[in-house]
Specification:
802 residues, six-stranded antiparallel β-sheet, DNA-directed RNA polymerase
Length: 802
Amino acid sequence: MKLKNIPNFNKTFNKNELKNIISWFLTNYGSLRTTKLIDKLKKIGFKNATTAGISIGIEDLRIPKTKEILLRNSAKILYKNDRRYEQGKTNIISHFEKISLIWNTTNELLKDEILINFRQTDLLNPLYMMTLSGARGNISQIKQLVGMRGLMSDSQGEIINLPIKNNFKEGLNIIEYFISCYGARKGLIDTALKTANSGYLTRRLIYVTQGEIVKKPNCFTKHSNLILIKKNNKKEYKKIKEKLLGRVLAKTIIEKKSGKILVSYGQDICNYTLKKVIGLKKIYIRTPLTCKLNTGICQLCYGWNLANGRIAELGETIGILAAQSIGEPGTQLTMRTFHTGGIFSGEVAKTILAPHKGSIYYNSDKKGKKIFTKYKEKAFLTFCKKKVTIIENTKNKSTIYLPEYTIIYARPKEKIFEKQIIAEVCEYKQKKLKVKTEEVQEIKAKTSGQIINMKKKNKLLWILSGNIISYHKLHENLHNKLFYKELLVKHKRKFYAEKVKVSSVKNKLENEKNIVVNKIKKEKIIKIKENSIQCQIPLGKLLNKERKILTFKNKYSAQIIQKNNNLTWIRKANAYLIEDNKKISNKNSLAIKKNSIISRTYYKKQKTEDIVQGLPKIEELLEAKKTFNLKRIANNPQDKLRDNYESLNKQYYNAIAVRKSIEKLQFYLIRKIQKVYELQGVIISDKHMEIIVKKMTSKVIITDSENSNYIAGETIDINRIEKINIKLHNKIKYEPLLLGITKVSLSNQSFISEACFQETTRVLSRSAIEGKIDWLYGLKENIVLGNLIPAGTGYNKNLNIY
């Protein structure tokens, strides 16, 4: 067979490359020749898989040597993070967020190191070959085998801040097994329970669209869909290509300069015509949303059948295709947590690592700005390309050129270690995290003590350590000699306690329940930060030796309570950083018990998500349910439709206002449903969504029937009422209606299909009273009666009926 215009297929073939060659072959040579090609590919695959004899053993699981370095680096960063929190430089939320970020970044870096290790040491490693082929498994599973399992999510989907550092080859310890049990159990529960929800969604969608069949070549609609082209980057270009490919143009496109027709009306957009129209700013295309047929959809409004890249044939069951396309990912992705074992995978910014240890050098005076990061750390933001040099010694030097808008974490001349994150590349658009839920975090006191020294600017709160004893207990203990002994012992241990008389305590504590026993004499308060120098002792000049100074550093943040010539007594204190807009529940100089709430702060908590979390959202949109939030009492598509209609009804005639309000809602629903699936990495063509949304918005309610045979309050198809209004002098007035998929299934043209779905007795009795006629237009009603279905070859035979 002689091939024409063949691309370069002389390379290693993985799953994606096989897809590309089959797609290209199908486009150029048709389905019959493609089946022969696929058959030959299958034979080659089986033959070579047998002769290769690929197997896997414990020796093939090679752990990269850089794992230890990365874990050591993470431990250093975590130590610094803990110290900053203890000194009151960051609050509790930033502290925990930073822990999650550090481990997540380490996990992602280790994933890259695994691939580099395989490429450099063993290209024919069976594990590496299996993973990259796309046949089975992915890098996430390999990372758990030879990297580290990383952060896990619990049964609620929340992240456990203690990561699993070991992999399956090294083996897990008891604590790590307990942590991983959460994810494994969640997977089993999801598999058992959530699959049914997904299956029921598919069933409802099938009953909505089972009558949607390609009935005519053209419906001659005047309505069209406007596509605005924005191709800022590769991702946007790909999205536009997916939207346009296989659609039919609703308006002829003329070149402005020459006046030539680029693409004419009714032309379908293929790869060749796409190159002509992609340079334009806006394009009008045909869409199932605006098809004028009362039953089914026309060929031009639907466009290509995505299975073979040709215009859908008459009798094609496109409704079933749409329902299955939307329902199928729900069933598949319910298993996602089960496959990965409940590990958490967040999005990580592009980081730049140090190639070796040494000192870092760059110019921080020009073409940049000193900034503070989200976690209150000092950093440098570059405005243009920046040269960074890392020098270990005269032989070992490295130069890195950083792109513009890069945050450099290391300061000039700072010593850095191997594989340390020295910089992070900023993106123009902030990456959206997975699901975020608003939570309340209570900031609690670690120790009992006294609140002092609250700065008003950044609200740094200090709690001096102390024991709190109730008034009654103190009254009893003051008569006990042992209590005095305890006080003296504490005095010797560098705690200063004032002797308290019973009478003075009684007078003082009439309106107070607690007292701090470790009372301080009224002296000037001197704050000491952790690792600050307390005193310097000069050593005498020795013969031919330099004079040295010894420095003493305190172990923790504290307050000086007494100073003598030889002794300095300090009292331990804990610092808490509280945001400017947050209230503090305890006032200055008050006693506070351990674990008492100092303040509350609101934050958004990151959770893992799979399609199980996505399904309720899709169901909510497709069933047009009411959702409640804080900003607005009810925020749902029903309210959106009513608001749009009321505002448009003042500007336009009734029919135009209804059409425009429905169009706005249709685009809103499609965008929202697509967003849920995109978060899962699932790509579904817009035209499948359009068929479902069209059925949901196809009904209107009559408000003023004028002199017609209809009654106010009756529901009717929008296409039908528009055709009736053309012949009437006094137009019927109506309002748009949005129905959920269950309601649509129970308001079909066929009462047999409705009775098969649910509420059988009610549907049949109501149909009998109304004297309904079933014209057997859809698939379900014909299957029930044992007729040939009006689709495929059955449609052609019964063509005269329609």
